[in-house]
Amino acid sequence: MKKTLFGLFALIFMVLSVSPAFAQDKDPVILSVAGEEITKSEFLNVYMKNNVNSEVLDRKSLEEYMELFINFRLKVHEAQVLGLDTARTFRDELAGYRKQLAQPYLIDEEMNKSMLQEAYDRKKTDIRASHILIRVDRNASPADSLAAYKKVMALRKRILKGEDFGKIAMESSDDLSARDRQLEGRTIKGNRGDLGYFTVFDMVYPFENGAYNTPVGEVSMPVRSDFGYHLIKVTDRKPALGRVQVAHIMMRLPANATAEDSAKMEQKANEIYQRILAGEDFGRLADQFSDDRSTATKGGVLPWFGANKMIPEFISEITKIKELNEVAKPFITPFGWHIVKLLDRKPIGTYQDNLNDMKQSLTRSDRAKRSEEALLSRIKREYKFTENLKARDDFYKVVTDSIFSGKWSAKEAAGLKKNLFTIGRKGISQQDFAAWLAKNQRKRNKEDIRAYVNGMYAGFVNETLLNYEDSQLESKYPDFKMLVKEYHDGILLFELTDRKIWSKAVKDTAGLEDFYKKNKNKYMWDQRIDATVYTYSSTDDKKLAELRKAIKKELTAPEILAQFNSDSATLLTIDRRKYQKGDNEMIDSIAWKPGLVPEIIDNGKAYLIYIHSIVAPEPKKLDEARGLITADYQNYLEQEWIKELRAKYPFKVNEAVLSSIK
After folding, report:
1. Cα gap 487→18, rounded to integer Å
2. At residue 14, does pLDDT exceed 60?
């Protein structure tokens, strides 16, 4: 409810801001409200924003809107007088909205466009690649990073000289999936570094770059990610699979299957394949023969998937199927023999089709760092950022291993008084960094102090730059300032209106009762009839005659129900109520006269209607029209509140300026 009503207020009463379209050297005041002066351009900007139907700007509509606008400004002023804008809940809510509004201003738009286009271009291609990982922490010391680099380069040289990539991956990769391993008493066969097929956003961005920039069959130079150094060998590149849905029959190979076992299973798979080609139902055969019991009872149908969700041998065969409902020849994977039928395919679509999903993936991806880096570079240039790295290096001596257990104190840096860097006219000191370090320390593995300080300093600089840019948004972007002001006044207006009108109308039962008593003749029933409708699930003349007789004898409803119903069957229902025109088509179709109306037969049922009396128009009871009465009471409260505000605070329209608007 709150969001809906707030949105309504934001739409109807956009608040004040100077729009460049209306800015003038001389901008006369058109309205003053309780000491606040609103200029002609401000008022026009708000008016035009709310003229959603592009109606012709005329004197009458301007005057009507001016009255609404005065009421709005009076309400907001009253909220500020009451201190609602100082409440913690208000400040927190506004801060939350402002943070959301600021996000589009804290990105590098050109970089984002470039990365979105790059992502779409890559989305068109599925890549299969293998890798060898040599782990090194992202904040590792230069010495540790160099050692890892030399190690990975030595492995690359061996591969280029002809050694098998998969063999070296099994022996040397820090990615444990490369080699056989034991899990819960069974052997998991290693992938020899083979990662299968993937596409954009499936891998960390540096790895993705390395893969897409490496030709098929070649081995990349070392690629650094947060995990360490990677050697990437691209083994296949093909047009994107998109998303597909298939049905499959799988015959699982035993753990210690021999070549003979596999040959027998292949023969069986080919026999089933021939039966499918001969016209037998794929789903029935899947239910009969597939070892994947989770899908066998569903006709073998698998959920929709893309190239990154299945083992590469499976994907390779799927991409060979060209037509829907085509069945691939039996093929083998590490899981066994498969027969697959293509049910449906969804291509990747156009750039616009993918834009929203790509934007969301971009914000969650580590490639967002590139946008942030571009933004940070612009901020540094714009505000003439300068830094003193020697002042940073002073922390090598005062930061101790206690910081890795979360126990370091900023007091350790009490003697450091230099400036670390300057942004705009703001200087950031060593003490600022010390306080930030103490606040952001956490328990972690020990590492080289110099590397730790350098990493934390970089984070401190970036955070400070972004916060500084955030603090300048209102002065740099009038449209952002306007949006924040709209939310500010909208929240205030909602809170005060809720107190004065909406909640009060619901909670003030005495006031609502008094309002109803004074206005109850506004809530009238039209002429009605008091009638009982007997619905009988039989059209037997004899039974209907008995029912008419019981009604005319004025038996009570329980007596009549007992006569015509049994414990095992309910043939008769009775409903007595008051009806007005439009409530019921059948009631509308009969003559409104007291007494029993001839039965109406419809769809195998008989309807007997007994009209007890004609009810003259009368006021509705409060509970019979509470929703409407409450709404009218709210309107009444608002009108009284507006009268009070107009009497309480001065306001004045400059009629000459209003008349000057053409």
Report:
1. 16
2. no
Q: Kindly list the distances between the CA atom of residue 603 and the CA atoms of 321, 535, 548, 587, in Å, as whole numbers in the listed order.
A: 55, 12, 20, 17
- CB distance 326 to 308 below 8 Å: no
> Does this chain's domain 125-239 share its CATH topology with 524-619?
yes
pLDDT at 185: 62
For residues 362-367, average pLDDT: 84
How buried is residue 507: exposed, middle or buried, by Cβ count under 10 Å (0-12/13-18/19+)? exposed
SS3 call for 28? coil
Query: Is 524-619 a CATH 3.20.20 domain?
Result: no
In angstroms, the CA 352 to CA 517 distance is: 60
State the DSSP string of 32-55: EETTEEEEHHHHHHHHHHH-TT--
* Euclidean distance between CA atoms 484 and 478, whole angstroms: 10
Local structure of 23: helix, strand or coil? coil
* H or E element that contains 229: strand 228-239
186-233 confidence digits (pLDDT tens): 677 899 999 999 999 999 999 999 999 999 999 999 999 999 999 999
Is residue 20 within 8 A of residue 41, CB to CB? The reply is no
- The 3-class SS string of 285-317 reads HHHHHCCCHHHHCCCCECCCECHHHCCHHHHHH
Distance between CA 126 and CA 315 in Å, rounded?
10
Nearest CA-CA partner of 79 in 43, 44, 34: 34
Average per-residue pLDDT in the chain?
90
78-88 residue pLDDT tens: 999 999 999 99
Distance CA 85, CA 162 (A): 72
Amino acid at 651: F
- What is 125-239's CATH topology? Chitinase A; domain 3 (3.10.50)
Largest CA distance in the chain: 110
Cβ neighbours of residue 217 under 8 Å, at least 6 residues apart?
A: 233, 234, 235
- pLDDT tens digits, 463-521: 999 999 999 999 999 889 988 988 999 999 999 999 999 998 889 999 999 999 999 99
Q: Phi/psi of residue 195, each to 5°?
A: -95, 0
Helices of type H across 88-160: 88-102, 109-123, 142-160
Taking each helix axis from N to C end, the angle separating 165-172 and 142-160, rounded to the nearest 10 degrees, works out to: 150
Q: d(Cα 573, Cα 550) in Å, to the nearest integer?
A: 14
DSSP state of 402: G
CATH class of the region 243-347: alpha beta
Mean pLDDT of 107-124: 92
Whether the Cβ atoms of residue 22 and residue 45 lie closer than 8 Å to each other: yes
Helix axes 282-289, 259-277, angle to 10 degrees: 150
The domain locations on the chain are 125-239, 243-347, 383-473, 524-619
* SS3 assignment, position 108: coil
Cβ-Cβ contacts under 8 Å for 130 (sequence gap 6 or more): 165, 166, 169, 192, 193, 194, 195, 232, 233, 235
Name the token pair of 474: 């209102």
For 660, other C-beta atoms within 10 Å of its C-beta total 11
- Find the helix or strand (DSSP H, E) in which 358 lies: helix 351-364
